Amino acid sequence: MRSASEDLSTRARIRDAAVALFGRDGFGTTTVRAIAAAADVSPGLVLHHFGSKDGLRQACDRYVVEEFVGRKDEMTRDATSAIARWLADVDRFHPLIDYLARMLSSGTTAADELFDALLTGTSRMLDEQIAAGIMREPEDRDILALYLTLHGLAPLVMRRQVTRGLGLDQLSEEGIRRSTIPILDLYTHGLYSDDRMLVAAREALTRTSGPRSDKGENDPNQDPDPPRPRRS
Amino acid sequence: MRSASEDLSTRARIRDAAVALFGRDGFGTTTVRAIAAAADVSPGLVLHHFGSKDGLRQACDRYVVEEFVGRKDEMTRDATSAIARWLADVDRFHPLIDYLARMLSSGTTAADELFDALLTGTSRMLDEQIAAGIMREPEDRDILALYLTLHGLAPLVMRRQVTRGLGLDQLSEEGIRRSTIPILDLYTHGLYSDDRMLVAAREALTRTSGPRSDKGENDPNQDPDPPRPRRS
DNA sequence: GTCTATATAATGATAGAC
DNA sequence: GTCTATCATTATATAGAC
């Protein structure tokens, strides 16, 4: 299991350097020269291999998608050992995560593909766990799958904020150790002590079909206001 | 309530154009000339007002943070009417959201400030709701607040994916109508049918202190693997 | 495949007129 | 405050030697 930059082909080395820099600094800010320097080749060679800067970007997109979706299948087969390998190889993935974050918040079709693949995986998982009786039957499987996927990606997309909030890298062992139980607790017992919010929202939604749905009032998530994305 | 571009000062018009373009295309990709064209002024004027392109960026950062945090207080005072106003004025906010998304996934200190403000708001809300008996006592308030903030921001940061998955804009009335109940359901009843996952994770975590924590196995969220950010 | 030039265009920034 | 014109720099991309 290669750890980082070793006996990679020159082309792969350039691609890896590009992923890292695009992910860290953005596409527009990153210059071909900087990529060439990072990969220790001449600027000309970068363009020789990928045609243009945009061609390089597309290659990076394809590579990152492939890498994530590929690993996803791997995870499905053997999650535990895959996680172990992941932790051992975490340095290799950080650049990919940063790149992924930029992909997802911008609007490329490659990001769409990737998201769809992850969403499909989540849906399949939901079906299985519900069938096995591990999970209960939710209100709406599709929407639940969508938001679970979002929630799962959020810590990756905002990795910096998680690391700041946790006081340590979430992807470290200690980070996982500290956040696992609280999150499982949330997904096991929920947030509210009883049904009253749900009932109230259901009522409000069936009652008013017009503008200003009152529901936003006590819902910690999802709602329309960017000022306080989870609640007031 | 001004809807979009009207009797704004020239400086404000330039700033709005910059927010929109930076948010849509990224900082490096967006040129001063493009901003000038969008604001219908000369390139020189842009730099006259903001000193440099980076100065313009900083002004945009400050503006967006201020706008979100300011609105947040507004929400706290009167969530319902604030939401109504938000919905009426949704076009004005879309560019801000796109800008926010880029801020949060890149690593500026302005983004840190903003996130911290939102996190503080979430924490305060948690305390209140728990004290009021609306929410139950969680495993760890701080970590819960952190992840609730992340979950709340996720649909904004990945707005495009939510819109694709929902088949309509999440910020539209119909989008809210469709996603409110499923999400409230998740936060009310949780995901799992019983405690077994939580118990298993707790056991695994206290048992093994070494590498490879088995817990990742059945936790739909937060875990280390980018391949399947929520579960296998 | 890889490098060293170099062409060509576009960018951020400045100066000075109005 | 706003514009036009221009500078100096830097970028992507190409051509050709090795």
The total domain count of chain A is 1
CATH class of chain A: Mainly Alpha
Instruction: Please give the largest β-sheet of chain A.
Output: none
CATH homologous superfamily caption of chain A:
Tetracycline Repressor, domain 2
List the helices and strands and how they pair.
The structure is a homodimer of 232-residue chains.
Chain A: H1 10-25, H2 32-39, H3 43-50, H4 53-77, H5 79-88, H6 90-105, H7 109-131, H8 141-157, H9 159-166, H10 173-189, H11 196-207
Helix pairs in contact in A: 1-2, 1-4, 1-6, 2-3, 3-4, 4-5, 4-7, 7-8, 8-9
Chain A binds a DNA duplex (18 and 18 nucleotides) through residues 10, 31-33, 41-45, 47-49, 51-53.
Question: What would your notes on this structure say?
Answer:
Two copies of one chain form a homodimer. Mean pLDDT of chain A is 85; it is low at 1-5 and 212-232. In chain A, 69% of the residues lie in helices and 0% in strands. Chain A is elongated. Chain A has eleven helices and no strands. The longest helix of chain A is centred in the first third of the chain and has 25 residues, at 53-77. The first copy, chain A, has a single domain, classed as Tetracycline Repressor, domain 2 (Orthogonal Bundle). With 232 residues, chain A is an all-alpha fold. Chains A and B meet through α4, α5, α6, α7 and α8 of A and α4, α5, α6, α7 and α8 of B. Chain A binds a DNA duplex (18 and 18 nucleotides) through residues 10, 31-33, 41-45, 47-49, 51-53.
